[in-house]
TrEMBL record:
GO biological processes: amino acid transport
Location of the ABC transporter domain: 2-241
Keyword ATP-binding: yes
Presence of keyword Nucleotide-binding: yes
Protein's UniProt name: Peptide ABC transporter ATPase
Domain of life: Bacteria
Record key words, sorted: Amino-acid transport, ATP-binding, Nucleotide-binding, Transport
GO CC terms, sorted: membrane protein complex; plasma membrane
Pfam families hit by this protein: ABC_tran
PANTHER family: BACITRACIN EXPORT ATP-BINDING PROTEIN BCEA (PTHR24220:SF674), IMPORT ATP-BINDING PROTEIN (PTHR24220)
Signal peptide positions (record): none
PROSITE patterns linked: ABC_TRANSPORTER_2
GO MF term set: ATP binding; ATP hydrolysis activity; transmembrane transporter activity
C-alpha cells in the first residue's frame, strides 16, 4: 500500500545543509495502523509532508497504492491529496462558521460534483465516530475531543486509501485522547482504513499495530504488536529508551 524507497531529503545548500531523511525505506500493508516514532528532529514531519505530497524528496521515492508520487504534476498532487488521502492533525482546522455536518462533508462538497451518496456517507461516519447527536452543533459548541472526532470523520468521508495523522492526541487530555484512539482503531478495523500516525507518545502509539522508529532520518527499528496493548506499550517504551540510549522504566499503559 505504501512503499517508502531509499528516501532522502536534504534542506539548504552547501555550507548550510541538513539531512532530514537519510536513505529511509519501509513499507506499509493495506489495513495496517502504523505509528512513526523517533526523537525530536528525526525527520518524522519531513516524512509526513512528503507522504502528504506537500514536499518532494531530494532522492528516492514514495509509492502509495502503486502511484509514484514523484510522477505527478502539482495539479495531480492536489487531486491525489483530496481524493486518496485523509488528514488528522493536532489542531483540528475546523471551519467555525459551519455546523459539524458541513465540516465533515467539506472535502466532498468543496469540488463538484457532489457524490449522490453524500447523506449516506455522512450518516455512516457520524455513526462510526459517535457524532450523530452533534451534527447541528458548531465547532465552538464542542469539546476538544469531539472536535478531533469531527476532524477524523472529515478525513475518512472521502474513503481515502491512506489516513495521515500527525500527533492527533496532542491537544487532548488523557481521557479524550483514549477515546479518540479507540475511534481511530475502530476506523482502522471497521472502515478498513490504512492509518499512518506520527506521535511522540508511547501511550498513543500503543493503539497501533506496528511502530517504525526512525533516528537521524534513517530507519532504526520496528516493534509489532503480538499480545496485549500493555505488552506492546512496554516494548515501545523499551525501544524509545534504546533509541535515546537511556534506561527503560515501565509504567501502566492505562495510567499514563
Ligand atoms: N524547512 C527546513 N529547512 C531546513 N531544515 C529543516 C526544515 N524542516 C526541517 N528541517 C530539519 O530537518 C530535520 C528533521 O526535521 P523534522 O521536523 O522532520 O523532525 P521531527 O522528527 O518531525 O521533529 P519533531 O519531533 O521535533 O517535530 C531537523 O534537523 C530540522 O531542523
Amino acid at each position: 500500500m505504501v512503499k517508502v524507497d531509499h528516501l532522502t531529503k536534504i534542506y539548504g545548500h552547501r555550507f548550510n545543509r541538513v539531512t532530514a531523511l537519510n536513505d529511509l525505506s519501509f513499507g506499509v500493508d493495506a489495513g495496517e495502523f502504523v505509528g512513526i516514532m523517533g526523537p525530536s528532529g528525526a525527520g518524522k514531519s519531513t516524512l509526513l509532508n512528503i507522504l502528504a505530497t506537500m514536499d518532494t524528496p531530494t532522492a528516492g521515492g514514495v509509492w502509495i497504492d502503486k502511484t509514484d508520487l514523484s510522477s505527478m504534476s502539482k495539479a495531480q498532487s492536489a487531486d491525489f491529496r483530496r481524493e486518496q488521502l485523509g488528514f488528522i492533525f493536532q489542531d483540528f482546522d475546523l471551519l467555525d462558521d459551519l455546523p459539524v455536518s458541513a465540516n465533515i462533508t467539506l472535502p466532498l462538497t468543496f469540488v463538484p460534483p457532489v457524490p449522490s451518496d453524500l447523506d449516506d456517507r455522512l450518516q455512516k461516519v457520524g455513526d462510526l465516530l459517535g457524532l450523530l447527536p452533534l451534527m447541528a452543533r458548531y465547532p465552538a459548541q464542542l469539546s476538544l475531543g469531539q472536535r478531533q472526532r469531527v476532524a477524523a470523520a472529515r478525513a475518512i468521508i472521502t474513503h481515502p486509501r491512506l489516513v495521515l495523522a500527525d500527533e492527533p492526541t496532542g491537544s487532548l487530555d488523557s481521557l479524550a485522547a483514549t477515546e479518540l484512539l479507540r475511534y481511530l482503531a475502530k476506523i482502522n478495523l471497521e472502515a478498513d482504513t490504512t492509518i499512518l500516525m506520527v506521535t511522540h507518545d508511547a501511550f498513543t502509539a500503543s493503539f497501533c499495530n506496528r511502530i517504525i522508529f526512525i533516528r537521524d532520518g534513517a530507519y532504526f527499528a520496528e516493534v509489532t504488536r503480538h499480545g496485549s496493548r500493555q505488552d506492546f506499550f512496554n516494548s515501545i517504551i523499551d525501544m524509545q529508551a534504546s533509541i535515546s540510549g537511556g534506561r527503560r522504566h515501565h509504567v501502566d499503559a492505562d495510567q499514563n
